[in-house]
Amino acid sequence: MRSPKKTTHCLQFFAIFIMCLLPSQARLETTYDLVIRDGRVIDPASDFDGIRSLGISRGTIQTIDEGPLQGRVVIDARGKIVTAGFIDLHSHAQTQLGQKYQVLDGVTTSLELEAGAYPVAAVGNQIADRPLINFGASASYAAMRSKVLTNSDNPYLFFDGRPFSFEDPGFTTPLDAQQIERVMRHVHLGLDQGGLGIGLLLDYMSDAVTTAELEALFTVAAERKAPLFIHIRRGMAGDPRGLMEVIDLAKKTGAPIHICHLSASAMGGIEEFLRLFHTAIEDGVDISAESYPYNAGSTSIGAAVFDRDWQQIFGITYADVQLAESGKYFDRQRWDKLRVENPAATIIHHYGNEDWTQLAVKAPGMMIGSDAMPVFSESVKSHPRGMGTFSRVLTEYVRKNKLLSLPEALAKMSYLPAARLALIAPQFKNKGRIQTGADADIVIFDANIIADQATYTAPYQGPKGISWVLVNGKIVVQDGAVVEAVYPGRIIIGAGSHPSY
């Protein structure tokens, strides 16, 4: 007769044996909504890089496994990169067409943070109830100034398709002490509405905003722990004083700041701008920055910078500026005429240099943001950065020039933006990652063939090599094409949102 002790040991051994089998059996018995099978998974948050399968249900990553997984839908990702969807924290392309081209470029979250919206929910006006990808906005400081000065209740979204002018009082008129106090109340309201920080187009209102007003704004930002997304003031080409101004105010007040399109503001001063940026980090300033991988900028021909000595500021002439709609270059007569007749017309100004662009893109901590322009119709041309920014980084600076490793580039396009925004919006703790429990915002691409195809003369071309894109667990791009009638995008709001909004 077997002793009770031996029987107990046998039972324990059998139980352990069964437990070892259970994970494999559980994999076979669990059927996920969607499985991505055998891709090269790169998690930019943890530096994980290996062949794995993902099980996705209810919009989140449920498991990451080396073994086989069962799914109602299965994507064969062999030979392809599987990584977190790209987070564009500088996009004015909050339109149906804009979202279409951004998602083809691997973007799963597109945010209007430099200019913002006010009310913040106005960011959804053009997307309505059909968002392809996630979206959100900062609270627009220009709109708040305009409201105080004009008492207008019109919602504001930068370039939202309505007639627009930088002659609006919000951009041109100084505030007195009482008005500054009123506009600060609107800043609080914008953050209460769920603004993802504060959008500050400072260069567009250079003559209107005083140091006292800026200090009041930075103080509120510090109090609310709300990042300021800043288009810094421009001086002559390469002048760093605009960057120094906001760094000094951040030091004084403790406000978190983000520098929009740093290389486009720095131009030939890029080395000094980067030195100031990294010194500020070492000094404890809560600062971040982003750049885009193009050597030309784009804005409205009516922008305030063109009221100044813009040829000296940018180091260019009329012959270096294109009308986006036609691709034609300017002379002085055509320039002066269009500024009067259509100040909202989009122009592309070629003032960059590839060496400057590369210095910015490869800088430690530098994020990638597109500064995508708003697009409403393919009959009107636009800057190609709204169609190819992220694929261009992977093409030019990873595969061709080897300026960045693939994991480094992916972190700049997903994890770093998510980490920057996590304090103002906790939803970002589950984005920019390929981890169990993370949102299933995923891009799948072939690193050997990915290539941006959008050009200045033919911008409306999606990249090649991006096969699949998932947003909140739903397939929105399949075999490089947008899936019809699937709109899984969601608005993302800040942690300061008040229940009444």
UniProtKB/TrEMBL annotation:
Residue span, Amidohydrolase-related domain: 81-476
Cofactor requirements of the protein: Zn(2+)
Pfam families for this protein: Amidohydro_1
Keyword tags: Hydrolase, Signal
GO cellular-component term (any): cytosol
Record GO terms (molecular function): hydrolase activity, acting on carbon-nitrogen (but not peptide) bonds, in cyclic amides; N-acyl-D-glutamate deacylase activity
Entry's EC annotation: 3.5.1.82
Enzyme class, first EC level, given as a word: hydrolase
Signal peptide feature range: 1-26
SUPFAM superfamilies: Composite domain of metallo-dependent hydrolases, Metallo-dependent hydrolases
Name used for this protein in its record: D-glutamate deacylase
